[in-house]
What does this fold into?
Amino acid sequence: MANLQWESLGGILTTNISSVCWSANRIDSFARGTDNALYHRWWDGHHWGGWENLGGTITSDPVAVSWGSNRIDVFAKGTDGAVWHRWWDGHNWGGWESLGGTITSNITAVCWGANRIDLFARGTDNAMYHRWWDGHHWGGWENLGGIITSDPKAVSWGSNRIDVFAKGTDNAVWHRWWNGNAWGGWELLGGIITSNISAVSWASNRLDLFVRGTDNAMYHKYWDGSHWGPGQALNLHIKILTAPTRFTINQMLDAMREVYATAGISVNLVSTETLNISNPALAVLNDIDTGTCTGGNPSAEQIALSNFRNNAGSLDVVVYVCRSVSWNSGSLNGCASFPANRPMAVIASYCSRYTLGHEVGHVLGLAHVNDNNRLMTGLGTDNITNPPPDLIQSEKNTMIASGFTN
Amino acid sequence: MPHTKDELIKLINLDEPDYPEIVAKLTKDDIPILTELAQDPNLAIATKAISCLGFMNDDRAFAGVEKAAKSNDPVLRVAATHALRNMTSRPATEKLLGKLLDDDDIGVKKFALKTVEASKLSNLKEKVKQMHSKETNEHIKSLSKQVMDKL
It folds into this structure.
């Protein structure tokens, strides 16, 4: 039978606890007491010391970090809304030092090297703010933008590397990162979460995130050095009225998968069906007229074709390969306007290698760009100059937020 | 100065071409190469060249569309039939459309009917009526009735 006993470490705590280790067999824990002061207990390898009263009047969870042996830095919000700081230098406690700002969340702190600390918190405008200690001075507060609705959480997997996560107004997880030279993101990582984010790194270029979902279960997402896993998946069905003539379905699918993988989206080919064009209703749709081919305004022929959706769920994307595709003014490679709850695109049998990915990109909410190095080029996917074509971060975010990936 | 063949291919071979915008960049000097491209074995290029020719009010452009309309490839005939929508001011267009209404291919017949409907070519009403009486595909038959009623 499992041992369910816990050792009581006493105290009467009024916040969450923050614990930090600065060497083997050493633990320092911090929490607020009933008098709103900061309290400290420590494990020295043999005994628990404390509770030590470190004073102050704090109005948030404390957060403790260590950038070296026998060094601790603790941060908390004060009654003035500013960030306050105490530190242990191996001999004495310093502080309280005010680091200013007016914050509206708990603080997250991370050390990516000796004598380096980076702090993050939400400001009164709900944006994320950053202050850092470079060994000599405090920099910042730097506005990192966004509108965040949770405590931020920072983690570092290497020198001069920081990853910060927070919940957005859409209740999804969002990510910004410092790569040593510049801030990247905000990157949408999806999900609908009902907790703060817990993040940890157990190796270089590795991140693991944990959150609570709407069903109160715990969910996990990871960065393995090249992709976020488990990835978003797009369910795709191909319905063939006329077989493609320039590239096979597999060639088009491989090209699409290569590009979509850069957004962390895996493309699942759920079904491939050859439709019977001797059916009179399908025969007239083989050279499909898409009318104005504008989003949300499918033609009567597109609506008629959307009836042939065998095996496809309402969030699955169906791509029909027709002998030809045209709109009011002439011939097209494809068109992505579709009726409500029937996401679909039509592509012509003579379309390019990248038309499939391009048209599904439209289904996922992407618009044309004037750049032949990108999938959504309006200058012709037959004219892509540096394959595979790119997706930029905002396009990846749009695709993941489309509701057609899961 | 006409565009080179490569320039024209790059200009027209888009996934979703805005033909009026493209044709605004062309001149009549581009028609010979467009006519050549209208027979290109790459149907992505050929169909778009045909669509461009349809917007160019010129005897040579019409000849290029007419040649495509008489092609053995139904994809080219569909594109040509659709392109004729923009050439209905030419007397020869009605004659050509009359033949296309008799085509064996359902796609060609559908676009021929749509072109007749869009341009209200009442001279072809009798032809559409004949088509309606003998058509076996119920959808084309229904479309021909709809067009007939509008002429």
